[in-house]
Amino acid sequence: MSSSEGAPESWISSFCSLMGHEFFAEVSEDFIEDDFNLTGLQSQVPMYKEALEMILDVEPEEDEDEDEEEEEEEDEDELLGDEKLPGYRRAGDRRHTRVASDLSVIESSAELLYGLIHQRYITSRPGIQQMLEKYEMQHFGVCPRVYCNGCKVLPVGRSDTPGQETVKLFCPSCQDLYTPPNSRFHSVDGAFFGTTFGCLFFMTFPDLDIGPRLDSSLVSPARSSTVNNQVSPDVPPAHQPVEINGVRTANFCPGLGLGKIYESRIYGFRVSERSRTGPRMKWLRMKPTDVEELNEMARYEAARREADNDGDTEMGAAPAGGAQNSAIAKRKKAPMRRRRYNPDQMSINGAEAG
Amino acid sequence: MMEDFNSETDSDYTSYWRDWFISSRGNEYFCEIDEEYLTDRFNLTGLNTEVPYYQYALDLVTDVFDLDADDDLREQIEKSARHLYGLVHARYIVTTRGLTKMVDKYKKGDFGKCPRVMCEGQPLLPMGQHDIPNMSTVRLYCPKCEDLYNPKSSRHASIDGAYFGASFPSMLFQVYPGLVPEKSTSRYEPRIYGFKVHAAAALARWQDQYREDMKSRLRDAGMEVNSQGCIIGKRGQ
Ligand SMILES: [Zn+2]
Ligand SMILES: [Zn+2]
């Protein structure tokens, strides 16, 4: 069944060593040979059987009868795919006449099939483990964002359906998505990594250190100097929880928050928010200094107790209004207000400019 | 926009060194500094102490270098010339004429595109996080997400950020407010088997509230604000 000893590389390892395929894990044959793992893929991949055999390096079986209505058979092959196994046997025989076109169809089907299996494999226990090794060896690169300090990224898709979008890189430090810097990845289908893998990975390995790791001598912008884009980070209040919403606090977006946000300045003076060209996107890179602000359940409960009402609030009703909800809203706003600084201090460009 | 064709480098004079410099691989972010800017001593104030072999370096940059130097010295002076060019460059690109040149390069995408998926290929601008040399390398500023990125090519990653300066992008948009791109509130929403991830969703809600707070502040100050939080006018106008 499988390729003989000493034979050249398997299809899988040669596929994974192709230029641009560096992100792929080598799916184990065990995983592919378990039919359960392939459920539903037959209908998504043309020439499924042939593709699967190619992936597993199975030689197509020989068959004698050559002289049948080839044209019709071919059409049926296309239509019926794997359900018509005898058709394929003949196809193997007709290799001399159809070799080029046939093989290239099977080859691209095999790549599609491998990609779809790969999407499932990397969310399985052995697959995610293999991706962890690649991640730790920095096979996927680092976040291009300066304030993420070279945090390692993970390949993900924005869709689970092939043909929609190419592979992207997910950074756990800023929770954002980036285009791979090297154009060789710009033709790799994102669905081969899928939408679930990124988050599942970091939930599976919650203790991975995603904090700063580059030598900070040149990279870190936190050094004092006459011109510095940093705002001094507020010190979080004591007793920060170890975990927030299921994520270790230390690993919760270490690249975001005060001190990790670009501050537009001209000759050292901050450009005012009230300027037409002032900062508009700080929210995107902001996180609360006190992560408890994100513990919505606790805050909701607290507000509920405080509201001292009939206590018939429903979960879904929170934003709808009413006395109780305005109490919640007040509480929600309170920490926001406290956090505000006066953006016009030190500003050379107030409301009138622009 | 002021178009000042006269101050284009004199056509009868070829700027060998500067031509060579800006067309060298890795120097794609630099624009050509005008001859007249370089020869006005006022623009170079303070640089003589910053650059070794200052006068030779300046002579080299302005193509009047005629010292019969040995290879070692020549090499030193060459290095100084590149350093001098960079430091003058930071000053030049915040002048009217320098800004014009950099705007052209920005529009051509000479500085690359934002790697952030949601920014959809927004052109970038080079800048430094410091105005003092040897502090940090060049960064790329995206005016759409207002964040800083490292150049993807290693040949750009070693350029001193001080050759562009910390004020440059802010200055450019101050002078050309029409070039500020439209902002976007779309963000990546991590999902697991189709479900939003709670930690990320809670942060997203908090960030949205942060943006709403900014909009309220601006409205309180009498501004008319669009849904992205950009000022589109003043109330009562
Ligand atoms: Zn990042
Ligand atoms: Zn951007």
TrEMBL record, chain A:
Keywords: Kinase, Transferase. GO terms for cellular component: CURI complex; cytoplasm; protein kinase CK2 complex; small-subunit processome; UTP-C complex. Pfam families: CK_II_beta. It comes from the Eukaryota. One of its GO terms (biological process) is regulation of transcription by RNA polymerase III. Belongs to the casein kinase 2 subunit beta family. This is Casein kinase II subunit beta. The lineage of its organism: Eukaryota, Fungi, Dikarya, Ascomycota, Pezizomycotina.
TrEMBL record, chain B:
It comes from the Eukaryota. Coiled coil: none annotated. Pfam families: CK_II_beta (PF01214). GO terms for molecular function: protein kinase regulator activity. GO terms for biological process: regulation of transcription by RNA polymerase III. One of its GO terms (cellular component) is UTP-C complex. Signal peptide: none annotated. Belongs to the casein kinase 2 subunit beta family. Tetramer of two alpha and two beta subunits. Tetramer composed of two alpha chains, one beta chain and one beta' chain. Regulatory subunit of casein kinase II/CK2. As part of the kinase complex regulates the basal catalytic activity of the alpha subunit a constitutively active serine/threonine-protein kinase that phosphorylates a large number of substrates containing acidic residues C-terminal to the phosphorylated serine or threonine. This is Casein kinase II subunit beta. The lineage of its organism: Eukaryota, Fungi, Dikarya, Ascomycota, Pezizomycotina.
